[in-house]
Amino acid sequence: MLLQVLRRTATLVASLVVSSVLVFVFMALLPGDPARVALGVNASEASVAQLRREFGLDEPLVSQYLSWMGGFLRFDLGNSYVSRVPIAPQIVDRLQVTLWLVVCAMVLALVIAVPFGTVMALRHRKPSGLVLSAISQVGVAVPAFLAGILLVTIFAVKLQWLPANGWTPPNEDPAQFLRQLVLPVLSLGLVQGAVLTRYVRSAILDVQREDYIRTARAKGLGSLQALRRHGFRNAAIPVVTVLALQLATLLIGAVVVERVFVIPGLGSLLLDQVANRDLIFVQDIVMLLVLAVLLVNFVVDLLYLVIDPRLKVATR
Amino acid sequence: MSAVAAQTSSRSNGPQRVLDVVGLDVRIGRHHLLHDVSFSIDRGERVGLIGESGSGKSLTSLALLGLLPDDADVSGSIRLAGVGCDLVGARERDLAGVRGRDVAMVFQEPMTALNPTMRVGDQVAETITVHAGRRGRDGHDGRGGREGRGGTDRRRARRRAVELLDQVGLPDPGDAAKAYPHQLSGGQRQRVVLAIALANDPALLVCDEPTTALDVTVQARVLDLIVRGVEARDAALLFITHDLSVVATVCERVLVMYGGRVVEAGTVDEVFRRPRHRYTQGLLAASDLDDAPPGGRLPTIRGTVPAAGAFPEGCVFRSRCDHATEVCATTPAWTGPDPGEGFACHHPAHEERAS
């Protein structure tokens, strides 16, 4: 077990190194000088040269990379090229907002997917199952931003039940915070829920065909009882895999949805800094998103060990 | 105590019917898979069910447990001693109460029959607790009840599970109970499956090719455990296999199935020594190692088992039978005193010696 955890930690570290190099190289390959880009075409040569010196942009790429990574490890993300303000606190600020969005959307997706996917699997030959299946298929096809716009049109513009956009921190006005959270979470979570529902359905269908479910029923368990006691845990293995991939999708989706709902999250921060041409800021945010995805996958790998006893000893 | 007394007294009164199957017919979709299957098994009796793959053996066993697919159309009657209702057409709730308690099953594939994410001891104990809880609720036999459930019940079931694992010959049953299935070998897993099946002392044990997937060296040991387990409980055994030598060692009576019908039945001695149905004759010839010419091949039954629903009208075997004539286009009647002894063939073997 400990060995397995160490192995997975080593994998995490290795992928972090590789991905950070990729992010860095990709940004370095962008045409144009970051200092020139940040200051604009009208800036004087002297001020550009000064910025380059100030941020170490005149040093060789390798030492630039090392100082960037060194800073990252100390959670010192450097200063913005444009505003010269430290980047880390701003990111932390925005991250809290995005986390609310992503976590709530994920929970919503699970709350939708587990019961509906199970019902669809149990009724896969009956009309009710087919109807649910068709609905989820539509859900899969709708992109999050379109869902967002539709939800705003219906619930904010037409019915005026909920605010169309905006963000209030939960400690300022919890009621308003929740009201403003509903639509963005729905537009992110419904779509992911529809996708996840299909995976839950096929996982349950697969498990239903397993011999051990037949053994459980031969013991005298009812078919639902057999599914609950013996099926869910086994069905969770493929579903957790998809869940990890979906968290990555959700982070990307949040970038768009935050734009639609004017939410000051990490996504809108990223787009703002792209517009500002603040390359180091963009680089930091991208690296942070990569880190988040890798961490989620790491946690999922550890979850496998908890769910599936075969993995604890399967490989040494 | 009284139950034991009732058992012994009824045994002294002669054989006691455990299973009575009459006119069992199963259709799934357009396919007519079982035709008018009738047989019965008495207490303590061991009956073999033989035939090639696709002849309806496994379907018969699933019908006995009420585990046929939902879209199966079943008619006829399956009566089990100690169960108030006919298993055909019974409510799923009642069937669940019967499964694992009055009738239990050992499946063919030990590698996949156990839940990989649950300790085997818990899987055995569950069989006990699931019915212990139900007994109290349904008033099946008075003892137990709601207050008996919970922690102590579960601990007792767990202790009993270790005993059962010991009975089926798992070394270190206490440790084995804590193992996950992947930590056990195929033979050990099949013992666990057998322990699950025997946990509630069922009146009928159904084994569907329980040793086919095992190494030859473990087969004999597992067979021995099945026979001893059944004998210790004075239970009835229905043993499904295509290995005739296994039937000869384990069973007293045998049913031969082909094309979803019982084509011949009788004592193992009679049927194996003097098969009447041409299909039985072919099966025996195909596995008779003594009769094989030196260095030669065993005779085979020509052709292959048709796909479900593609059996010929009349005698189902006539498309592969060397003795088939025009009369075989009509379904042969059962020749014999009862469904447990006789055959259905227009041109039976050993006719000359029969009279």
Structural description of this entry:
Chain A is an all-alpha fold and 316 residues long. Chain A has two domains: 1-82 and 278-316, no CATH class; 95-276, MetI-like (MetI-like fold), CATH 1.10.3720.10. Helices cover 79% and strands 0% of the residues of chain A. Chain A has helices at 2-29, 34-39, 45-54, 61-73, 87-122, 127-141, 144-158, 174-208, 211-219, 223-260, 266-276, 279-307, 309-314. The termini of chain A are close together. The mean pLDDT of chain A is 85. Chain B is an alpha/beta fold and 355 residues long. Chain B has two domains: 16-251, Rossmann fold (3-Layer(aba) Sandwich), CATH 3.40.50.300; 274-354, no CATH class. Chain B contains 13 helices and eleven strands. Chain B has helices spanning 2-12, 57-64, 92-98, 110-113, 120-138, 151-167, 173-177, 186-198, 216-233, 244-250, 268-273, 278-287, 351-354, and strands at residues 17-28, 31-42, 46-50, 72-80, 103-106, 204-208, 236-241, 253-258, 261-267, 335-338, 341-343. Chain B has an eight-stranded mixed β-sheet, sandwiched between helices. A three-stranded antiparallel β-sheet of chain B has the order 2-1-4, with helices on one face. The longest helix of chain B is centred in the middle third of the chain and has 19 residues, at 120-138. The N and C termini of chain B lie far apart (50 Å). Classes of the chains: A mainly alpha (316), B alpha/beta (355). Chains A and B meet through helix 9, helix 10 and helix 13 of A and helix 3, helix 5 and helix 8 of B.
